[in-house]
Amino acid sequence: MRVVIAGASGFLGTHLTEHLRVHRHEVTQLVRNEPTERLQSQWDPAAGHIDQSVIERTDVVVNLAGASIVGNVHSKKWADEVLDSRISTTATLARAIAASKQPPAFLAGNGISWYGDHGTQEVNENTDSRGNAFLTTVSRAWQSATEPAAAAGARVCILRTAPVMDVQAPPLSALRRLFKFGLGARLGDGEQFFPMISLRDWIGAVAYLAESRDVSGQFNLCCPQTPTNREFTKTLAAAVHRPAFLFAPAPVLKVAAGAMAPELLGSVNARPCALERAGYDFEDEDVREVLAAGLA
Q1: How many degrees, rounded to 5, is the angle at CA 82 between CA 81 and CA 84?
Q2: What is the pTM of this model?
Q3: Mean pLDDT throughout 193-218?
Q4: DSSP letter string over 95-137?
Q5: Distances (CA, A) of 55 to 20, 44, 216
Q6: Residue 260: what pLDDT?
Q7: Using H for helix, E for strand and C for coil, what is the string for 22-74?
Q8: pLDDT digits (tens, 9 = 90+) for 119-168
Q9: How far is CA 293 from CA 165, 172, 196, 199, 238, in A?
């Protein structure tokens, strides 16, 4: 299988590229600078430039590109970069796919924040999107940018990704340090649901969707049993053998976290129903297993 990946140099892209190549798939990386390897192709998503021939000869296009959400959350420049980087990359790829004689499949990155705060309600891929939290509005526009590919008949999978828990990357890398110093704390009352997924299940699920021929639509990339923030805090504290008696009051978080506060205090009790119907078997089903895998 021939795969093109945008965002291949990022944390998830690097691991997905390695996994696919180990399984004998050909992976071409889209890069912003002059290519330094044979399986690289230069593109400029902000200008809408891409080598159409690369898209024409591939089977699957995966978009993981986008500015980091770690930054100055009170800055308009940060917010614009988060939004624009996701829309420009997705739109450029969607148009190139639509222009192909035989459109390849499109696995389009997105976020579990698409749903917004749903309290204790179980959330599946058919649940509505609510509210105007920053990442929720970003995720809506992000998904809309895939429409040219779908309209051209391409197989499109929207990857609504929950935070990927691995000690080498945020948020777990930072949380592990805090908890080891005894600074672990629940957020607000801790009753909000906090979806997550292990790195190995994220890679496994994306590879499974790439290799599938007949599945499309929206997919929640999260473990089957979503914990509350209280459960997550207790489990991580136990895993690093430290107490976690502190709590961060909601009013303080709303001021300090700015546009990201809804991600900390909102509740998304997500279930990966579409993935399970498609036949994917999770290795890490609950918070204990996800953190054990992430910290290993």
Answers
A1: 60
A2: 0.96
A3: 97
A4: HHHHTSSSPPEEEEEEEGGGG---TTSEE-TTSPP-S--HHHH
A5: 18, 14, 19
A6: 92
A7: HCCCEEEEEECCCCCCCCEEECECCCCECCHHHHHCCCEEEECCCCCCCCCCC
A8: 999 999 999 999 999 999 999 999 999 999 999 999 999 999 999 999 99
A9: 8, 11, 12, 8, 14
- Statement: residue 100 has pLDDT above 90: yes
Q: What is the SS3 assignment for 182?
A: coil
Phi, psi of 250 (to 5 degrees): -55, -45
Distance between start and end Cα atoms, the chain = 31
Q: Which residue has tokens 């590879």?
A: 207
Helical (H) or strand (E) element with 110: strand 105-111
Helix ranges restricted to H, 99-246: 134-144, 147-151, 172-180, 199-211, 229-239
- One-letter amino acid at 123 equals V
Cα 25 off chain centre by? 22
Phi-psi region of 48 (alpha: psi -120 to 50; beta: other; left: phi over 0): left
* 3-state secondary structure (DSSP) of residue 117: coil
What is the C-alpha to C-alpha distance for residues 223 and 165, in angstroms, rounded to an integer?
Answer: 11
Percent of the chain surpassing pLDDT 70: 100
Which structure tokens are listed for 132?
A: 């105007």
CA distance 193 to 229: 6
Q: Count Cβ atoms below 10 Å from residue 224 Cβ, excluding itself.
A: 17
